[in-house]
């Protein structure tokens, strides 16, 4: 099993009444809430935490891309990844990822990822998300009807830029370049492992399988709520004749480990409530710009909503129903299984259940969340590395992880081991 | 209500089937609908009493044919497509009435192919942008938010129709919701994130006699845009309609018809 330490880099000082006074943490969050001098400390603290995780023996450290977002301060994850590449030696650098459709030309992604791969000595995992509507269509103004087509074209361009030996001309619908010839080129050949963060879209699963990429389900809502999606994913893999290699799939999970369950509650409740209450306060109207999904997907969505309502599972309401019903207090957060908290043994058991029921071999751990104090983040990280990783490490050892930087495929030693 | 017939035209090298509603007799008038899709309404009934009205459905907005929009990528594709459509209707030179998004399309066609358009009526048209009067992003709004921008009388029948919650239990209700969102997607393809594709640079090419109709209280595309169009289209004139906002043809149908009919007959 692989353990990836994942940072969202949330702004840690959103006011207590944020949810009542502000419409959304994303897209139109007010600039007066941002204090650059405080952000200076946060960025440096966050980088320290990522480096600390690498020192503790996590297999990879991860960052991602968001725009105009109060819980994700990384519009450019490549800057962060580069800083991390300089300060670490044995952990993979996982960028999850670059929203391909937002780069003009997308060749920029091929170049920057090649730079990170060279600087890190071949440790890059390259993530290619389509991107949320908030990031792509609102903050960056991409036309929702063209986002996916742009994404696929950009993907093809980046792949060719990495793999073709001679300068070539690219004549796309959205991109025209007469001379594509990137310098530098990636160390990893033919290219760094490619991972696709996404949600429950069958088209994405099929495409990831067809391309032999890792599919990562980046839910913030825990493994109980992820069962349906991951079950659908593996059924689709079976239909496509793919094996059940758990390393085909990644999953993100918020974690809080301490000496005892009570201590874990004491240490992590406030930060968890900050994360689910303030950070994930996204105006639901931003979730579905017309054209972001096809008419058929839209139809399927309405039909399943109505069906669920008929079965008494959910109220039929407008576009706002799904988000507003989520838990925001620690009791609900834990009962609904959004977070995994407890003593090391309790966390081991929950993660074993997570990994085996979802059949996921690449585990992305959110051990900093909300406004968690940096010292507590490090405590969480170290305890997990000492007491949790060694017990779960052997899981799935019968499978080969073909989606990992080749030079790092040996087992890492964790701290205290 | 007038008797309408529909015909389907095979356009864009066989890739787009366009449904066109037709009613009335007399000289031809083409009506281009707004971003939410075509609804045959009393305004079109009134036009059909004097003219032969052709009301095409924008590609992709015809129920059952969502992919009709796929072959058109950019504004230039769209303008050429509408040129083909007018040709297929046998109209070498026609009067065009466009509302909102349809007004933008009508103006783009009139600027690109001046001889195609004999008379131009722009009702609350999109297509221009002023930083001092930004057009709100209506595609992100709930009915409670956009209705006050579109309608002058919040307790009148037009507001009531727009605010009526869809019946998601019925298939018709579901289809209506999907249809209206997908219509926004098909028109949004040419106006997201900002409804300006450079029309201001081309309006000087319009030779059609032009009438600009605006609701006095239009809070979506404010009436300063009426003036903006007037200044850029030679010989055009503006008629502002009281007690109306973005839908003057629905809220003040008689007054709008009176103005449009007499302009088209002159």
Notes on the structure:
The complex is a heterodimer of chains A (417) and B (266). With 417 residues, chain A is of the alpha/beta class. Chain A has 2 domains: 2-280 and 326-408, Alpha-Beta Barrel (TIM Barrel); 292-325, no CATH class. Chain A is 43% helix and 13% strand. Chain A contains 14 helices and 11 strands. In chain A, the strands form 2 sheets. In chain A, strands 1-2-3-4-7-8-9-11 form an 8-stranded parallel β-barrel, surrounded by 8 helices. A two-stranded antiparallel ribbon of chain A has the order 5-6. In chain A, helix 7 links the parallel strand 7 and strand 8. In chain A, helix 2 packs parallel to helix 14 and helix 4 crosses helix 6. The longest helix of chain A is centred in the first third of the chain and has 21 residues, at 36-56. Chain A starts with a strand and ends in a 25-residue tail after the last helix. Chain B is an alpha/beta fold. Chain B has one domain: 3-Layer(aba) Sandwich (Rossmann fold), CATH 3.40.50. Chain B is 36% helix and 19% strand. Chain B has 10 helices and 8 strands. Chain B has helices at 42-48, 75-88, 101-112, 143-150, 157-163, 171-188, 199-202, 224-232, 248-251, 253-265, and strands at residues 4-11, 16-23, 28-32, 52-56, 94-99, 117-123, 209-215, 237-241. In chain B, strands 1-2-4-3-5-6-7-8 form an 8-stranded mixed β-sheet, sandwiched between helices. In chain B, helix 1 (42-48) packs parallel to helix 10 (253-265) and helix 2 crosses helix 3 (101-112). The longest helix of chain B is centred in the C-terminal third of the chain and has 18 residues, at 171-188. Chain B is globular. Chain A binds chain B through residues 137-138, 141-146, 173, 285-286, 288-291, 294-296, 298-299, 302-303, 305-306, 316, 318, and chain B through 66, 69, 73, 139-142, 168-169, 174, 177-178, 181-186, 188-189, 192-194.
């Amino acid at each position: 099993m692989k353990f990836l330490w994942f940072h969202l880099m949330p702004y840690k000082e959103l006011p207590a009444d944020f949810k009542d006074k502000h419409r959304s943490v994303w897209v139109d969050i007010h600039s007066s809430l941002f204090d650059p001098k405080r952000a200076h400390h946060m960025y440096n603290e966050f980088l320290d935490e990522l480096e600390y995780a690498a020192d503790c023996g996590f297999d990879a450290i991860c960052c991602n891309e968001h725009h105009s977002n109060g819980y994700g301060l990384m519009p450019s994850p490549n800057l962060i990844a580069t800083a991390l590449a300089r300060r670490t030696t044995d952990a993979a650098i996982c960028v999850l990822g670059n929203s391909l459709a937002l780069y003009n030309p997308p060749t920029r992604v091929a170049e920057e990822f090649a730079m990170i791969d060279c600087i890190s000595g071949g440790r890059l995992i390259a993530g290619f998300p389509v991107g949320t509507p908030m990031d792509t269509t609102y903050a960056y103004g991409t036309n929702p009807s063209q986002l996916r087509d742009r994404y696929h074209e950009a993907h093809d361009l980046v792949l060719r830029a990495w793999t073709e030996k001679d300068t070539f001309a690219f004549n796309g619908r959205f991109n025209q370049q007469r001379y594509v010839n990137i310098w530098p080129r990636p160390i990893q050949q033919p290219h760094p492992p490619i991972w696709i963060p996404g949600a429950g879209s069958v088209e994405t699963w099929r495409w990831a399988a067809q391309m032999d990429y890792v599919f990562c389900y980046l839910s913030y809502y825990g493994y109980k709520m992820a069962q349906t999606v991951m079950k659908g994913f593996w059924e689709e893999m079976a239909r496509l004749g793919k094996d059940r290699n758990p390393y085909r799939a990644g999953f993100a999970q918020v974690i809080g480990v301490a000496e005892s369950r009570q201590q874990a509650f004491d240490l992590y409740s406030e930060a968890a409530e900050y994360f689910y209450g303030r950070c994930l306060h996204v105006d639901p109207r931003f979730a579905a710009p017309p054209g972001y999904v096809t008419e058929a997907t839209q139809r399927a969505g309405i039909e399943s909503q109505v069906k669920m309502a008929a079965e008494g599972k959910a109220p039929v309401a407008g576009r706002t129903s799904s988000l507003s019903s989520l838990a925001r207090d620690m009791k609900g957060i834990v009962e609904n299984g959004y977070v995994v908290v407890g003593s090391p043994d309790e966390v081991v058991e929950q993660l074993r259940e997570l990994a085996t029921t979802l059949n996921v071999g690449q585990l992305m751990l959110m051990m900093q969340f909300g406004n968690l104090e940096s010292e507590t983040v490090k405590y969480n990280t170290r305890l997990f590395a000492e007491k949790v990783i060694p017990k779960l490490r052997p899981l799935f050892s019968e499978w080969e992880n073909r989606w990992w930087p080749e030079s790092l495929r040996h087992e890492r030693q964790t701290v205290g081991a | 209500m007038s008797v309408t017939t529909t015909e389907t035209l095979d356009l864009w090298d066989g890739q787009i089937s366009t449904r066109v509603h037709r009613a009335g007799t007399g000289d031809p008038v083409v009506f281009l609908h707004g971003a939410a899709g075509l609804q045959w309404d009393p305004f079109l009934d009134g036009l059909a009493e004097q003219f032969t009205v052709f009301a095409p459905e924008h590609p992709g907005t015809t129920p059952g044919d969502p992919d009709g929009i796929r072959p058109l990528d950019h504004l230039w594709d769209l303008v050429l497509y509408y040129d083909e459509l007018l040709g297929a209707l046998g109209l070498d030179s026609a009067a065009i009435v466009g509302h909102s998004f349809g007004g933008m399309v009508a103006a783009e066609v009139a600027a690109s192919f001046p001889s195609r358009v004999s008379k131009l009526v722009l009702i609350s048209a999109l297509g221009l942008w002023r930083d001092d009067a930004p057009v709100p992003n209506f595609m992100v709004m709930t009915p409670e938010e956009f209705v006050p921008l579109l309608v002058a009388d919040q307790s009148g029948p037009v507001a009531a129709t727009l605010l009526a919650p869809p019946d998601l239990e019925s298939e018709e209700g579901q289809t209506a919701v999907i249809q209206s969102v997908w219509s926004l997607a098909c028109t949004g393809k040419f106006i997201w994130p900002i409804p300006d594709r450079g029309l201001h640079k081309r309006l000087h090419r319009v030779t059609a006699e032009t009438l600009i109709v605006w609701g006095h209280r239009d809070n979506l595309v404010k009436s300063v845009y009426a003036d903006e169009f007037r200044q850029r289209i030679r010989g055009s004139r503006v008629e502002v309609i009281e007690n109306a906002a973005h839908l003057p043809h629905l809220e003040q149908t008689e007054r709008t018809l009176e103005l449009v009919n007499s302009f088209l007959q002159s």
